[in-house]
Amino acid sequence: MSDTEQGHPPARPALQDYERDPGDKPPFVLTFAEVKLLGIAGVGFFLDAYDLFIINPVSTMLQYRLYGGKSLPNNLQDLLKAAANIGSVIGQFLFGYFADAIGRKAVYGKELMLIIFATIMCISCPTNDLSPDNCLIWLTVFRIVLGVGVGGDYPMSASVTSDRAVIRKRGTLLAYIFANQGWGSLVGSLATIIVLACYKHVMNDEGETSKVDGVWRIVIGLSLIPAFGTLYQRLTLPEAERYKKAKNDTITETLEAKDFKEGVKVSSLNEPEEEVHVDIQRKAHFREFLEYFSEWRHAKILIGTCTCWFLLDIAFYGINLNQNVVLQQIGYAGTTGTAWEKLFKVSTGNIIITALGFVPGYYVSVLTIEKLGRKVIQIQGFLMTALFLGILAGKFTSLGNASFIVCFALLQFFFNFGANTTTYCYPAEVFPTKYRATAHGVSAACGKAGAIISALVFNTLTSSIGTPAVLWIFFGCSLVGACFTLLLPEVAGRDPDAILAEEIREKRLQQRH
């Protein structure tokens, strides 16, 4: 007997209220259910940025623990820094596809389990039993696994949020979730400083530099707290009503198309259960995805989202994975003093960089995304980052410390009040529910491909052609990104599912005539 038959109100899935909106408050004012979803979905981006930040100080700590203060081998250092991004590409493709193919609920939470497993394996690295090079290989392997989980979170959290969002607040909610990157960077820098401060006596006063082994393990291990904190909520999050509707519409379309060919009109969905089950499993088959994007009107949008994200990440990760260049310019390179003093100075410099421009830019996007629109924010973001990259490149050797810090802070601000936020939002808003996660995964993977190129090539290029020339390359990437944004429509107020339904109706009319 059902709850209704027993006189009880039917059980409602968690966060169902989230999908209803009275429309009487500004988009950036969140309900309790929306804040709850923000906590569940935002932790992946928090961990992404936390990991991106801490790999720089951790690699410096490993110099003292494994190589007596000497630099890490170049090839292994580059691979260690690129490892998480390599894994991300795999995770974005896989999780994006399966989120569409078998459902968000079946997949969501598994990416967080991968992150937890990989983090535990990283902090379990047996530095006393392995050679220094083998320790780096151990960390690289499990950072690739970590990257698969972090990458999987991109299409998963974007889809889970967009599936539940009312259209007038969709961009704001996605921007809120993506803004957790800023907090991840800030908390990562704070955690490093606090843990180093706790180790000052033993490392600095007593001279036991090898104790840095405990610092990097604690700093990495702290990320397990938010991961474990949201794992249960992710695993138990119910399927969104919008996704269920898209799934049922797919079944209907498949059956109607089948019976149309046989000259039979479909009047109901009372088909054999096995056949319906097969159709559900095939609803996001890669062939169907390719068929949808074989039309230029859809393909050009995917080309736009992929290319813009790729070009953005070349510049964004090129700078943020190699902040040692920036730290040298602002006097926080940590080249003098004891090992502890060097590490502490670098960490202090990193928190200055993060606090100045990183976090504020995200929240200006949150406040303005529904007013200005994604397209305007992305184009002005690309153009403004090109401007400040041009200033830094042209005046690299002549800018004073204060001028350099202001320019760099504004560059970071316009990365985040610009393309870094909108390239994430666009694929989650412009594509229909049935293709959303796959298309978002493909777009995000293209972005990470740009990040990998930057991580592997930046140091080599800098030593061969100089830092200013590399900054000019980033300048060019930003200008081209602004041009490719013109391929994208404005998505404020746009319902991609309604557009898809209209396209399907038009095709059916053409077939009948």
Question: What characteristics describe this protein?
Answer:
globular, 22 helices, mainly alpha, 513 residues
Describe this structure in words.
The protein is an all-alpha fold. It is built from 22 helices and no strands. It has helices at residues 32-66, 74-101, 104-107, 110-123, 132-164, 170-178, 180-198, 200-205, 212-221, 224-236, 241-261, 273-282, 286-293, 296-320, 324-330, 339-372, 374-394, 401-416, 419-430, 433-465, 467-484, 496-512. Residues 1-15 and 257-280 have low confidence and may be disordered.
Query: Based on the structure, what is the oligomeric state of the protein chains?
Result: single chain
Number of strands: 0
Measure the end-to-end span.
Answer: 49 Å
- Cα-atom radius of gyration: 24 Å
Average residue pLDDT: 83
Question: So how many helices?
Answer: 22
Structural class: mainly alpha
The percentage of residues in β strands lies in: under 5%
Q: pLDDT below 50 for ≥5 consecutive residues: which ranges? A: 1-15, 257-280
Estimate the helix proportion, in percent: over 70%
Overall body shape: globular
